[in-house]
Amino acid sequence: MFNLKLLQKNKTVKYGIPMLLDPSLEAKVNIQRQPVILEEEYEKLKEMNLDEWKNIRGPRPWEDSREYQEQQRRKLSNKD
Asked: Which region ranges are annotated with the description Disordered (predicted)?
């Protein structure tokens, strides 16, 4: 008989089998379904307006994020 504790500690059983049983992962592995997924993502990108995007810098680790956000809001309100 199999020892249940050994199976619970086995990394293949713990992490590998749930991934094999995941249906969303199956769609990524299924070669026949892949072109459909790519076409869906392409359609999503076509709908986005990529010409009018703004690069927004986040705060540095040593900067206070709330203070930095307030500065950015002030800059935006001064431009309007």
From this structure: 56-80
Token pair, residue 44, equals 């999503």
Class of residue 72 by CB neighbours under 10 A (exposed 0-12, middle 13-18, buried 19+): middle
Per-10-residue mean pLDDT of the chain, 80 residues long, equals 75 74 63 72 85 79 84 81
Can you list the positions of beta strands (E) in 1-80? none
Side-chain-facing half-sphere of 12: CA atoms under 13 Å: 2
Query: What tokens appear for 77 in the block?
Result: 């309100």
**How far apart, in whole angstroms, are the C-alpha atoms of residue 30 and residue 46?**
25
